Amino acid sequence: MFRFFRSAHLRQDASPDATDDCDLAALRKYQRGVLLGGGCLLSIAIVAGLIALALFHADGFAARRSEALQRSRAIVEAHLAASDAAHLRLLSMAEYAWRHRPDNDARTLEVDRANYLRAGQRAVMTAGTESVPQTVLGAGTDAWPVDRLDRYLMLAHSLSIIRRLGGAGGRSSESESSFFLDPRGQLLVLGEGMSEQHLLSATGEKDRAQLIGRLAALSRTGVDGAEAYGTHATRMELVRHPVSGAPAIASALVARDGATVIGTFVTLESTTPLSRAMRIADGGVSFVLTGDGRVVAGTGSPKALDLGEVTRHLLDAEHKGRTLATFRQGLRFFQVVRVEEADWALVSTYCIADVIADGQRLYIAAASLAFGLLLGLWTLLAWLHWRAFGPALARAARVYQGEQLSRALIQLSPVGLCLLDRHSGDPVVQNDMMRQLAAAAERRGAMLYARMVDQASAILLLPDTTIAEFEVSVPDPHGQAPVVLLVGATSASYQGRMVLLCAVRDLSARIELEQQQKQARESAEAASRAKSRFLAAMSHEIRTPLHGILGHLELLGRSALDDNQQARLRRITQAADSLLQIINDVLDFSRAESGHLDLVAETFEPVTLLERVALLFSPLAEAKGLVLDVMVDDAVPARLVGPQARIEQVLRNLVSNAVKFTPSGRVELRADWVPDTDGSQLQLQVIDSGIGMTETQMARLFQPYVQADASIITRFGGSGLGLSLCRELSSCMGGTIHASSTPGVGSVFTFCIPVQAVPATGTLPLADRSVLLSSSASGWRDELRRRLERWGATVIIVSEADAWPAEHWEAHVPLVAFERSPARTEVASRAGRRRVILVSADGPLKPQVRANAWRVSCYSSDGLLQALLVSSQRGVPTLAVERGMH
């Protein structure tokens, strides 16, 4: 068969390539058809078995429902038979009591009759505490003969005993209500569970006569067909209970004395006991219907029942001699059987959901088994396809398509590819790119294939060499640039021959591009060096006469000038200083770029350096209302070795920018000590609450002659060289500088520089002495505490001057306190003869006595120490008060 299909394919396309393709297509097609066809047939068989199992279960479920229906029918018929027997027993005892009247005392009969008439033709008759009271109601019985009335009252008296005996016989009276009505419809005897008041209220009748007429109509329910059932016939009908309105089974029996009708007994029985008995016999949905289609009792609701359909199928079954009728409405099934004791039908119904619920475990088990079989089947088929037939087809595909694919790849490659015979040097397979390269080399007089085979064979002879990479230079006979080819080769076998697989790429364009880039880079560097030399030379030439200008301006300032002239002179001096600063920055930037920046390592005190920078910008900060803080961490050594001048230059630029770009708030200079594996670094930070910068502005921050924003020059001025100079200086010192900023919040510039710590030597000037310290500014309180503790003092921090302990005011105890600026005069006056040191941003660098208090700048540690030492020498407690820096 395979040959037949293969020949059919070959007739469509007889070319060699088409033959290979047809063989491969036939293998794939029929292998897939066999696997899929067999798998589908087995799957259909498994599913068919599952369906057959479901059908068998459905038949079994229908048989069980039919059995349950027969049990329900037996229970219903037994229930009705028991009711009939109880009713007939009641009727027999009543007729017997009517015929055999007890010999009651005439006086008792007269009293009962008188009470009955006096109560408006109403009396409750009872034969004792254990009897069932009977309520006698009359309408027009006052005109009856005395003997007739006495006889019915005596019957009511007897019924109280008969009802008790009937209840004791096994029939509960809790679900029954009964009454007796004479043939004239004028006397009514109500049993237990019924009263005149309840009946009037429930039926809506206005008087007793209408009520008796209403119940008389109800009693005729069974009397109409009594003759057909014999003398003591019981006729059952479904009615509404006159009191509760609930469905009830009405049984009517006619009592007779020979041929004379005594009256009619009517019993109203609730359908609940019948429904309860049916639920015990049948766990499904079944119900009892009357001949006119009303529901008597049941275990469910007949909402989907077509009454006409039920009647038609029941009659059809009786006509054909069957006792059971079955039919279907959509997906719901019905079973109908007639109840022998009454003109009723018993109906059982179920749907597909009931069948599924009944066989849920069976269906789950069967479905799991079927799923497992299907999964195993298709897993096996998949394994056969991928592990058995798949590899075979893959090998066939490699055989049929290997060469075509290889040729296509070679042709599509962007480099020259070829297979060269290692013995002859002839190309076995090559692409168009290789063919063009070989032709171009041949035009230049070079045999490219032979050179490639010789060089590759020589390299591949080396040990541990599997790939040979080399360059082949093809000179130009006209003196132009040679063509350089990069060749990669490795040994291979093709169609029984030893070949070289070679990949060839032309490097001439890349080499030419690299040379052009190198020339452009050298030209740019030369231009940059020329620019730097020009800027340095021009800046130096400009700085020389500028110093002369500044000198003459200083001399002019010492002459007699009026106020306007002095103001103009100050502006000219400021402009000249700014120009000199720009020139110095340009010179330093040029030196840093060229690598000729001088770095002189010297010993310095970091605290003094920060104070010097802060003192320089303090007037400008105070003029703008800024708080300028200096904070030095405890871990920072007292003395360091490093390029102090360049560190101070970077710090000045950063603080200058911070004060310039901060309209309000504070600027903080902070020093920290950062240990490192390669040494230690001094970390300086300038923190401001200025305008901040965006991410875009941060990207351009350290570029020379570039401002963060185009509006910066207009709003704040500057050349845009300060931060780029800071970066170059940091790089020359081996350090780093970076910034972080948030628009509208502020910026943080961090500058780290490697330095060496100098071991501490000397004595502590304030050793074994106590100093009180008070300051409302937490930052300055910590900074001044650090200074005092570094000098050896024991610092006692108090929050308010009023809280100072009295014993610390003794003359022999040194006392230092710091308060806000408004409290300075108060502290000085309260100290009396004692020395008070007022520390503030606007204080003098050297301590001075003013208004009985020492005054010194918070940016002068030496001044503060000098004030403390002078006070201590005089033996006077010392009080230091710091001005609030918020």
Automatic annotation (TrEMBL):
Record-annotated membrane-spanning stretches: 34-56, 362-386
One Gene Ontology term of the molecular function aspect: phosphorelay sensor kinase activity
Reaction equation(s) it catalyzes: ATP + protein L-histidine = ADP + protein N-phospho-L-histidine
Pfam families (alphabetical): HATPase_c, HisKA
Known EC number: 2.7.13.3
EC class of the enzyme, as a word: transferase
InterPro entries assigned: HATPase_C_sf, HATPase_dom, His_kinase_dom, HisK_dim/P_dom, HisK_dim/P_sf, Sig_transdc_His_kin-like_C
Coiled-coil spans in chain: none
Histidine kinase domain segment(s): 537-757
Cross-referenced SMART domains: HATPase_c, HisKA
Keywords, sorted A to Z: Kinase, Membrane, Phosphoprotein, Transferase, Transmembrane, Transmembrane helix, Two-component regulatory system
SUPFAM superfamilies: ATPase domain of HSP90 chaperone/DNA topoisomerase II/histidine kinase (SSF55874), Homodimeric domain of signal transducing histidine kinase (SSF47384)
Protein name per UniProt: histidine kinase
Source organism: Stenotrophomonas pavanii
Upper classification of the organism: Bacteria, Pseudomonadati, Pseudomonadota, Gammaproteobacteria, Lysobacterales
